[in-house]
Amino acid sequence: MRSRIIFIVSGIGLILALASAYIAGQQPKPLPPAFNPAANPYAKGIYAQGIIESSQPLGENINIYPEVTGPITEVLVGEGATVHKGDPLLRIDESVQRATVEQLLSQAEAAKTMLAELKAEPRRENLDVVTAQVDNAKASLKNAEDQLAKQERSFSIDPKSVSRDALDNSRNAERIAATNLEVFDKQYALTKAGAWIYDIQNQEKQYIALSKAYASAAALLAKYTIRAPADGVVRSIQATVGSYVSPQGAYDSYTQGMDPLIVMGAPDDNMQVRAYIDEILIDRLADPAKLTAEMFIRGTDKHVTLTFVRMQPFVSPKIELSDERQELVDVRVLPVIFRFASPKNLNVYPGELVDVYVSAK
Question: What tens digit of pLDDT does each residue of 201-246 get?
Fold first, then answer.
């Protein structure tokens, strides 16, 4: 009886083990895909990843970096705004630079005034002073000459009437008066001639140097206001009032890197796709004159016909899409640009990743 019970229990365990093995060996039913992947519309089409961007004759979107550093004090436009070339977009704190400009302007104006003063010499008042000094010197000389003449006449009549010492003093006084008159004549000529040409030239150079320093500082001051470099649409503003920016851009709290302060693009009427063709597939590309392509929007069954624009004739590492600059495999791609009209029944935005099929040979 005991052996029969053991046999029954062993059989039940065996059945349970077989059932467990069968259940464990069953593959779970695969989940349906989130969306149907795009089907290749060409018999020999080439697949490529693409990124939508604003239509530009050259380059990509307009990435704006400030040329100065400081905190933002005012943001004048919003994302999505249509702007024209020269419109102010935002302002950076300019208080220090503005004070520098005002100081240099004052120095340039002072140098200009000094230059005008030198060119306006001689002053009438200065001429009046030296003229009076010349007249006074002439009078002093006349008086000395009269005194000397009297003493010489008296000496010639009676040598004992005038001492030799007094006669010598009169002669010396006459020479001193003549010398003083000569000095004042030369001083008058110097005053009447005006400023020395070298002083004027030196002051002109100083005025020019300070004017250029002011113009340079004013040009730098203008850079504290970021303006639109072309007509277009503001796609992204990386910072807000109070954020510190530099020529490296603005700090992104999410990517923890430096990004362009402002990204601008063309209006949405016409957009373009930058498709990256793997280097091993480049040889299969059709003649550019016959090149066609279809763009598929991920997650939908929508597709858009593309028109070939140009190739960027430079095979580069595939970092534009992955943002990985230290990949284990050096994958290189050829950018091919296509244009399309923005579809009215489909929302697409610059920066969106899409699937692109390009016709092959």
Answer: 999 999 999 999 999 999 999 999 999 998 888 989 988 899 999 9
Give the separation between CA 208 and CA 71, rounded to whole angstroms.
33
Tell whether pTM > 0.90: no
Domains of the chain: 46-55+268-358 (2.40.30.170), 62-93+224-265 (2.40.50.100), 100-118+200-220 (no CATH), 122-194 (1.20.58)
Burial class (CB in 10 A: 0-12, 13-18, 19+), 154: middle
180: enclosing H helix or E strand: helix 164-193
Q: What is the DSSP letter of 33?
A: P
Angle at the Cα of 135 (from 130 to 136), degrees rounded to 5?
Answer: 95
**Tens-place pLDDT, residues 9-56:** 676 777 777 777 767 666 677 777 666 667 788 888 889 989 988 887
239 neighbors 250 (Cβ within 8 angstroms): yes
CA angle 201, 205, 210 (to 5 degrees): 150
CA distance 137 to 182: 9
**Three-class SS of residue 66?**
coil
Across 88-116, b (16+ Cβ under 10 Å) vs e yields: ebbbbbbeebeebbeebbebbeebbeebe
Residues near 148 by beta carbon (within 8 Å), at least 6 away in sequence: 170, 171, 173, 174
* CA–CA dist 47, 360 (Å, integer): 10
What is the torsional sign of CA 313, 318, 323, 324?
A: negative
Contact assessment for residue 334 and residue 291, using Cβ atoms and an 8 Å cutoff = no
